[in-house]
Amino acid sequence: MKRANRTVYLAVALSLVALLAVQCTSKPQSVAPTATSQPAATTAPQAEPTVTEQPKAGESGRAGIFVYAHGTQFPDLDPAKSYSNDSVVMSNCYETLTFYNPPGSKEILTPKLATSWEANEDATEWVFHLRQGVKFHDGEPFNAEAVKFSISNTKALGIGAAYIWDPVQEMEVIDDYTIKFKLSYPAPLDLIASSGYAAWIYSPKSY
Protein backbone atom coordinates (compact mmCIF):
# COMPACT_ATOMS: atom_id res chain seq x y z
CA MET A 1 0.00 0.00 0.00
CA LYS A 2 2.83 2.32 0.84
CA ARG A 3 4.47 1.48 -2.46
CA ALA A 4 1.37 2.56 -4.38
CA ASN A 5 1.19 5.85 -2.53
CA ARG A 6 4.81 6.57 -3.38
CA THR A 7 4.11 5.94 -7.00
CA VAL A 8 1.23 8.41 -6.94
CA TYR A 9 3.31 11.00 -5.15
CA LEU A 10 6.11 10.54 -7.64
CA ALA A 11 3.77 10.94 -10.58
CA VAL A 12 2.28 14.10 -9.09
CA ALA A 13 5.73 15.50 -8.40
CA LEU A 14 6.89 14.81 -11.93
CA SER A 15 3.76 16.46 -13.30
CA LEU A 16 4.40 19.56 -11.22
CA VAL A 17 8.00 19.68 -12.35
CA ALA A 18 6.94 19.39 -15.98
CA LEU A 19 4.31 22.08 -15.53
CA LEU A 20 6.80 24.42 -13.92
CA ALA A 21 9.26 23.76 -16.70
CA VAL A 22 6.69 24.74 -19.29
CA GLN A 23 5.70 27.89 -17.40
CA CYS A 24 9.27 28.93 -16.88
CA THR A 25 10.20 28.56 -20.48
CA SER A 26 10.94 32.14 -21.61
CA LYS A 27 8.73 33.40 -24.37
CA PRO A 28 10.43 35.24 -27.21
CA GLN A 29 10.21 38.91 -26.53
CA SER A 30 8.75 40.94 -29.31
CA VAL A 31 11.13 43.67 -30.37
CA ALA A 32 9.49 47.01 -30.80
CA PRO A 33 10.11 48.37 -34.29
CA THR A 34 12.69 51.05 -34.46
CA ALA A 35 11.12 54.38 -35.26
CA THR A 36 12.16 55.60 -38.69
CA SER A 37 13.30 59.17 -38.61
CA GLN A 38 11.48 61.47 -41.00
CA PRO A 39 13.66 63.00 -43.72
CA ALA A 40 14.56 66.60 -43.08
CA ALA A 41 12.48 69.08 -45.07
CA THR A 42 14.33 70.28 -48.14
CA THR A 43 14.22 74.03 -48.65
CA ALA A 44 13.66 74.97 -52.27
CA PRO A 45 16.35 77.32 -53.55
CA GLN A 46 15.09 80.88 -53.75
CA ALA A 47 15.58 82.58 -57.09
CA GLU A 48 17.51 85.77 -56.81
CA PRO A 49 15.26 88.69 -57.85
CA THR A 50 16.36 90.43 -61.02
CA VAL A 51 16.74 94.13 -60.48
CA THR A 52 15.27 96.11 -63.39
CA GLU A 53 16.75 99.51 -63.76
CA GLN A 54 14.01 102.10 -63.85
CA PRO A 55 14.23 104.71 -66.63
CA LYS A 56 15.11 108.15 -65.47
CA ALA A 57 12.68 111.02 -65.75
CA GLY A 58 12.27 112.05 -69.36
CA GLU A 59 13.46 108.67 -70.65
CA SER A 60 11.46 105.74 -71.99
CA GLY A 61 12.21 102.14 -72.81
CA ARG A 62 11.82 102.80 -76.54
CA ALA A 63 13.29 106.13 -77.38
CA GLY A 64 11.43 108.12 -80.00
CA ILE A 65 8.24 105.99 -79.94
CA PHE A 66 4.97 107.12 -78.44
CA VAL A 67 1.85 104.97 -78.73
CA TYR A 68 -1.52 106.63 -78.18
CA ALA A 69 -4.78 104.70 -78.25
CA HIS A 70 -7.86 106.80 -79.00
CA GLY A 71 -11.31 105.46 -78.25
CA THR A 72 -13.11 106.87 -81.28
CA GLN A 73 -12.91 106.80 -85.04
CA PHE A 74 -11.57 109.63 -87.16
CA PRO A 75 -14.17 110.52 -89.80
CA ASP A 76 -11.96 112.80 -91.91
CA LEU A 77 -8.21 113.41 -92.06
CA ASP A 78 -8.44 116.31 -94.49
CA PRO A 79 -6.82 119.36 -92.81
CA ALA A 80 -9.26 121.67 -94.60
CA LYS A 81 -12.36 119.72 -93.50
CA SER A 82 -11.42 118.22 -90.13
CA TYR A 83 -13.93 119.17 -87.46
CA SER A 84 -14.04 116.29 -85.01
CA ASN A 85 -11.84 114.01 -82.88
CA ASP A 86 -9.45 113.75 -85.80
CA SER A 87 -7.89 116.99 -84.57
CA VAL A 88 -5.83 114.69 -82.31
CA VAL A 89 -4.17 113.32 -85.43
CA MET A 90 -3.98 116.66 -87.20
CA SER A 91 -1.84 118.18 -84.49
CA ASN A 92 0.76 115.48 -85.16
CA CYS A 93 0.79 116.09 -88.92
CA TYR A 94 0.27 119.82 -89.40
CA GLU A 95 0.92 123.08 -87.62
CA THR A 96 -0.80 126.44 -87.31
CA LEU A 97 0.60 129.96 -87.46
CA THR A 98 0.18 130.40 -83.70
CA PHE A 99 -0.47 128.15 -80.69
CA TYR A 100 -2.95 128.89 -77.90
CA ASN A 101 -1.29 128.19 -74.55
CA PRO A 102 -3.04 126.40 -71.64
CA PRO A 103 -4.73 128.56 -68.97
CA GLY A 104 -2.28 130.01 -66.48
CA SER A 105 0.54 130.37 -69.00
CA LYS A 106 2.59 133.54 -68.99
CA GLU A 107 1.70 134.27 -72.61
CA ILE A 108 -1.62 133.63 -74.34
CA LEU A 109 -0.03 132.63 -77.64
CA THR A 110 3.18 130.94 -78.71
CA PRO A 111 4.70 131.47 -82.16
CA LYS A 112 4.53 128.39 -84.38
CA LEU A 113 4.81 128.77 -88.16
CA ALA A 114 4.62 132.52 -87.62
CA THR A 115 7.45 134.01 -85.57
CA SER A 116 5.77 137.37 -84.96
CA TRP A 117 2.75 139.44 -86.03
CA GLU A 118 1.23 142.87 -85.67
CA ALA A 119 -2.09 144.59 -86.39
CA ASN A 120 -3.28 148.12 -87.04
CA GLU A 121 -5.26 150.02 -84.40
CA ASP A 122 -8.68 148.70 -85.35
CA ALA A 123 -7.45 145.13 -86.01
CA THR A 124 -8.58 145.11 -89.63
CA GLU A 125 -5.10 144.59 -91.06
CA TRP A 126 -2.63 142.00 -89.85
CA VAL A 127 0.91 141.20 -90.92
CA PHE A 128 2.45 137.81 -90.07
CA HIS A 129 6.18 137.10 -90.31
CA LEU A 130 6.80 133.45 -91.08
CA ARG A 131 9.38 130.94 -89.88
CA GLN A 132 12.15 130.18 -92.33
CA GLY A 133 13.75 126.82 -93.07
CA VAL A 134 10.55 124.79 -92.63
CA LYS A 135 9.55 122.03 -95.05
CA PHE A 136 6.34 120.06 -95.49
CA HIS A 137 6.19 116.25 -95.46
CA ASP A 138 6.56 116.21 -99.24
CA GLY A 139 9.78 118.23 -99.09
CA GLU A 140 8.21 121.45 -100.36
CA PRO A 141 9.27 124.64 -98.56
CA PHE A 142 6.88 126.43 -96.23
CA ASN A 143 6.30 130.04 -97.29
CA ALA A 144 3.72 132.80 -97.61
CA GLU A 145 2.21 131.24 -100.73
CA ALA A 146 1.47 128.06 -98.78
CA VAL A 147 -0.27 130.10 -96.08
CA LYS A 148 -2.37 131.93 -98.65
CA PHE A 149 -3.31 128.69 -100.42
CA SER A 150 -4.23 126.84 -97.22
CA ILE A 151 -6.50 129.56 -95.85
CA SER A 152 -8.05 130.38 -99.25
CA ASN A 153 -8.75 126.70 -99.96
CA THR A 154 -10.21 125.99 -96.52
CA LYS A 155 -12.41 129.06 -96.69
CA ALA A 156 -13.61 128.25 -100.22
CA LEU A 157 -14.57 124.68 -99.28
CA GLY A 158 -16.73 126.06 -96.48
CA ILE A 159 -16.70 122.74 -94.61
CA GLY A 160 -16.21 122.10 -90.90
CA ALA A 161 -14.78 125.11 -89.11
CA ALA A 162 -13.99 127.08 -92.26
CA TYR A 163 -16.17 129.89 -90.87
CA ILE A 164 -13.31 131.01 -88.60
CA TRP A 165 -11.77 132.74 -91.64
CA ASP A 166 -14.94 134.67 -92.44
CA PRO A 167 -13.41 138.09 -91.59
CA VAL A 168 -10.53 137.56 -94.05
CA GLN A 169 -11.30 139.60 -97.15
CA GLU A 170 -7.93 139.59 -98.87
CA MET A 171 -4.42 138.16 -98.45
CA GLU A 172 -1.32 139.74 -99.90
CA VAL A 173 2.03 137.95 -100.18
CA ILE A 174 4.62 140.63 -99.44
CA ASP A 175 7.60 138.26 -99.74
CA ASP A 176 8.37 134.58 -99.15
CA TYR A 177 8.09 134.96 -95.39
CA THR A 178 5.67 137.85 -94.92
CA ILE A 179 1.92 137.85 -95.55
CA LYS A 180 -0.65 140.59 -95.01
CA PHE A 181 -4.33 140.03 -94.17
CA LYS A 182 -7.06 142.57 -94.83
CA LEU A 183 -10.26 141.94 -92.88
CA SER A 184 -13.82 142.99 -93.58
CA TYR A 185 -14.32 143.69 -89.87
CA PRO A 186 -12.10 143.78 -86.76
CA ALA A 187 -11.10 140.33 -85.49
CA PRO A 188 -8.34 138.76 -83.34
CA LEU A 189 -6.63 137.01 -86.23
CA ASP A 190 -3.74 135.84 -84.05
CA LEU A 191 -6.22 133.85 -81.94
CA ILE A 192 -8.09 132.60 -85.00
CA ALA A 193 -4.81 131.35 -86.47
CA SER A 194 -4.30 129.11 -83.41
CA SER A 195 -7.56 127.19 -83.86
CA GLY A 196 -7.46 123.41 -83.59
CA TYR A 197 -9.81 123.25 -86.57
CA ALA A 198 -9.44 124.74 -90.07
CA ALA A 199 -6.26 126.67 -89.21
CA TRP A 200 -3.80 124.02 -90.38
CA ILE A 201 -1.25 125.05 -92.99
CA TYR A 202 -0.58 122.38 -95.63
CA SER A 203 1.42 121.92 -98.82
CA PRO A 204 -0.28 123.23 -101.99
CA LYS A 205 1.51 120.55 -104.00
CA SER A 206 0.27 117.58 -101.97
CA TYR A 207 -3.29 118.69 -101.22
Describe the structure.
The structure is a single chain. This protein is an alpha+beta fold. It has a domain at 87-192: Dipeptide-binding Protein, domain 1. The chain is built from 4 helices and 6 strands. It has helices at residues 2-24, 87-93, 144-157, 189-192; strands at 98-100, 109-111, 114-119, 125-130, 168-175, 178-183. Strands 3-4-6-5 form a 4-stranded antiparallel beta sheet, covered by helices on one side. Strands 1-2 form a two-stranded antiparallel sheet. A hairpin with an 8-residue loop joins strand 1 (98-100) and strand 2. It is elongated, with a radius of gyration of 51 Å. The relative contact order is 0.14.
Quaternary class: single chain
Count of individual beta strands:
6
Give helix and strand order, one letter per element, not per position: HHEEEEHEEH
Write the CATH fold name of the domain at 87-192.
Answer: Dipeptide-binding Protein, domain 1
Overall outline: elongated
Structural class: alpha+beta
Provide a concise account of the structure shown.
Helix content is 23%, strand content 15%.
Reconstruct the topology from this structure.
Blueprint (H helix, E strand, L loop, with lengths): L1 H23 L62 H7 L4 E3 L8 E3 L2 E6 L5 E6 L13 H14 L10 E8 L2 E6 L5 H4 L15
